[in-house]
């Protein structure tokens, strides 16, 4: 992921939903907290919060997203 890339922010602890849009502010680098190789971190900045009514609809998996680079492994060329 590179600076300027658009991302969706998924809140995985309580709401388990996409809750906002963000932008990468620092490119991917090795995750210093990972116990295994291959994990990366990026820094992001908020762009906007999604309305609550949109969250559940956007959080359900859809075929186009499953095939996109967003779900590729971090070490694949599409995520660099």
What do these coordinates show?
- The protein is of the alpha+beta class and 80 residues long.
- The protein has one domain.
- The protein has two helices and three strands, in the order βββαα.
- Strands 1-2-3 form a three-stranded antiparallel β-sheet.
- The longest helix has 8 residues.
- The radius of gyration is 13 Å and the shape is flat.
- The C terminus is likely disordered.
From the structure above, extract its key features.
3-stranded antiparallel β-sheet; 80 residues; flat; alpha+beta; 2 helices
Kindly give the count of domains: 1
Instruction: Give the low-pLDDT segments.
Output: 71-80
Strands ordered across the widest β-sheet? 1-2-3
Specify the helix fraction band.
Answer: 10-25%
Q: What value does the Rg take, in angstroms?
A: 13 Å
Number of strands: 3
Write the layout of secondary structure elements.
Layout (H helix, E strand, L loop, with lengths): L5 E6 L5 E14 L9 E10 L2 H8 L3 H4 L14
Antiparallel strand pairs: 1-2, 2-3
Give a brief rundown of this model.
The protein is α+β, with helices and mostly antiparallel strands and 80 residues long. It has helices at 52-59, 63-66; strands spanning 6-11, 17-30, 40-49.
